[in-house]
Design goal:
By secondary structure, the chain is of the alpha/beta class. It has three domains: 2-109, 2-Layer Sandwich (Beta-Lactamase), CATH 3.30.450; 147-318, Rossmann fold, CATH 3.40.50.300; 326-468, Helicase, Ruva Protein, domain 3, CATH 1.10.8. It is 46% helix and 16% strand. It has helices at 2-8, 11-20, 39-45, 49-52, 57-60, 66-72, 113-140, 155-167, 184-193, 215-220, 238-241, 257-269, 295-300, 306-312, 329-344, 353-361, 367-381, 394-397, 399-404, 416-419, 425-443, 448-455, 459-468, and strands at residues 24-29, 34-37, 76-83, 86-97, 100-109, 174-177, 202-206, 221-222, 235-236, 246-250, 271-272, 281-282, 286-291, 315-318, 350-351, 386-387. The strands form five sheets. The chain has a five-stranded antiparallel beta sheet. Strands 7-10-13-6-14 form a five-stranded parallel beta sheet. A two-stranded antiparallel ribbon has the order 8-9. A hairpin with an 8-residue loop joins β11 (271-272) and β12 (281-282).
């Protein structure tokens, strides 16, 4: 009966009734354009109806989500919406006619006693969630290692560690150099942990992993609307996040030349200019950079800025490769096994004397990272408690077989007569390089991306060398 009466009412009467209600009501179409807003809502917003109707709802009502509901078709009930300095209770409903989403209807009201209790609980939940993520973010921006985590007693390693400890209290830039997998990032963490900045952020950035077109926004951040697809409100760059702390720029040799000049200016002026920004932001940070490349050679070739090199290379710490610190292999292996045991819920894992001896005779082109890989593989296939030669990958377990396939043998060195055959240096280097690439590919089961990481090469560089040496 009621529906029949409503159908006979003129549409203007229905609008008048809605207009007189104390509820604040708004109706939008699929695009979020206001089709109707009652006078009660207009008085609350201090706008005229004729101004509001036809406008995008976001231009008239602050913090609205009406345009979103009109698109998703999902109702939103009892939500909190700050408007004109008041926190209102908002309800938003999709409008569906003949199974088609045509828009949305929304209402807002002042919270009553029940709403206030609900609002208080919601606000507390939001505060708790915010604090959780804030704590999580702070932990992620802290150093994870200290000097006690740097394992080794060989003189060459202790010299590097002692120098790192000595300079940790300084604010000068540090350049960590060494082959891939030697533990440069661990040194960076430890230096920050022992510095005066240890209570402030430690931000690590791998320069080789960032696409060139995103490098500037990632490093320096961007302002709201700086480019298409930019996050609303902008985003802080890694340099800004590291303010008062330490920025660790890993694989600095892969930083584009255009960014090198901008980074140099930042280090000289102690300020950053975000993409799309109209003013600079002062920052105070320490830079630790790392590379497995010869930066001086890159400077000579015009691939790295000389002035930036000298700015970064105030204190140079060379991290020795594993093959030059054989006495450290056993204690490092034990430390790695302790970590793996926690991950695999094991205990009491041992290394046989044959395995330790084999490790000492291996050249470890991938250094500690390769050793971690070998031990993780072993613990995965281990039945008992002791890792034997049979648990190692083929190139360590049976190097003669690998050599017969074209790889090098670590236990079958060349005879004296072979050593006396001198070849042109360029040819010898090429031969060694070719064999190391083959070894890495055997170790990674032909995975060129992993092999490139193991060798400390860029992916493109490895592909070029494989083509050059006809390695498939």
């Amino acid at each position: 009966m009621t529906n029949a009466i409503l159908k006979r009412l003129p549409i203007t009467w229905i609008k008048e009734i809605i207009d007189l209600t104390i509820e604040r009501i708004v109706v939008v179409d699929r695009e979020g354009i206001i089709l109707f807003i009652n006078s009660t809502y207009c008085e609350f917003l201090d706008v005229k109806q004729e101004f509001a109707i036809g406008k995008p709802v976001q231009q008239v009502i602050e913090n609205t989500r009406m345009h979103i509901v009109a698109t998703t078709g999902k109702e939103e009930l009892e939500g909190l919406q700050p408007i004109n300095g008041s926190v209102m209770i908002a309800n938003r409903y999709p409008l569906i006619i003949d199974n088609e989403l045509v828009g949305a209807l929304g209402t807002v009201k002042y919270p009553g006693p029940d709403n206030l209790r609900q609002s208080k609980n919601k606000i507390q939940d939001l505060i708790d969630e915010l604090n959780f993520y804030k704590t999580k973010a702070q932990k992620e921006l802290q150093s994870k290692y200290n000097f006690a985590d740097l394992t080794g007693s060989s003189p060459i390693f202790l010299a590097a560690k002692k120098l790192a400890e000595k300079v940790s209290g300084s604010n000068s830039s540090v350049l960590l150099t060494g082959e891939s997998g030697t533990g440069k990032e661990l040194f960076a963490h430890a230096i920050h942990h022992s510095s005066m900045r240890s209570e402030h952020p430690f931000v690590a950035l791998n320069c080789a992993s960032i696409p060139q077109d995103l490098f500037e926004s990632e490093l320096f951040g961007y302002e709201d609307g700086a480019f298409t697809g930019a996050k609303k409100g902008g985003k802080k760059g890694q340099l800004h996040l590291a303010n008062d702390g330490t920025i660790f720029l890993d694989e600095i040799g892969d930083m584009p030349l255009s960014m090198q000049s901008k980074l140099l200016r930042t280090l000289q002026e102690n300020e950053i200019n975000p993409v799309g920004g109209q003013s600079t932001i002062p920052i105070n940070l320490r830079v630790i950079a790392a590379t497995n490349q010869d930066l001086m050679k890159m400077v000579d070739e015009g691939k790295f800025r000389k002035d930036l090199f000298y700015r970064l290379n105030v204190i140079n710490i060379e991290i020795p490769p594993l093959r030059e610190r054989k006495e450290d292999i056993a204690p490092i292996s034990i430390k790695i096994l302790e970590k793996l045991e926690r991950n695999f819920y094991r205990s009491g894992t041992l290394l046989s004397s044959e395995v330790i001896e084999r490790f000492k005779h291996h050249s470890w082109p991938g250094n500690v990272r390769e050793l971690e890989n070998v031990l993780e593989r072993a613990i995965n296939v281990l039945d008992g408690r002791t890792i034997e030669l049979s648990h190692l990958p083929l190139y360590l377990r049976d190097p003669e077989t690998v050599a017969s396939r074209g790889g090098s043998s670590v236990t079958n060195p060349p005879k004296d007569a072979e050593l006396l055959q001198v070849s042109p240096l360029k040819k010898t280097i090429a031969k060694v390089e070719k064999q190391e690439i083959k070894n890495a590919l055997i170790f990674t089961n032909g995975n060129k991306i992993e092999a490139a990481k193991l060798l400390g090469l860029g992916k493109t560089n490895l592909y070029d060398k494989c083509k050059k040496y006809e390695i498939k």
